[in-house]
Specification:
Blueprint (H helix, E strand, L loop, with lengths): L1 E4 L5 H12 L3 E6 L5 H6 L3 E4 L5 H8 L4 E3 L1
Parallel strand pairs: 1-2, 1-4, 2-3
């Protein structure tokens, strides 16, 4: 299962990501700022650029995911 998490760099997002990764899921995280991409990669999360306030970028970011957590 591939799960998209908006807020993956926050405390709750990181905790949920760790649980999902430990259960064998792939995690994709919304990344608004380029400097957060290495942080997400370091956690085992695939970063995808986008914004909650830009519908097109958000649609591209969740592409291929089975579930979305916000």
């Amino acid at each position: 299962m591939r799960v998209f998490i908006a807020g993956a760099t926050g405390e709750i997002g990181r905790s949920i990501s760790k649980l999902l990764l430990s259960s064998g899921a792939s995690v994709v995280g919304l990344c608004r700022r380029p400097e957060n991409e290495p942080v997400l990669r370091g956690l085992g999360i695939e970063p995808r650029r986008g914004s909650l306030f830009d519908e097109e970028s958000l649609a591209r970011a969740v592409e291929g995911c089975d579930a979305v957590i916000h």
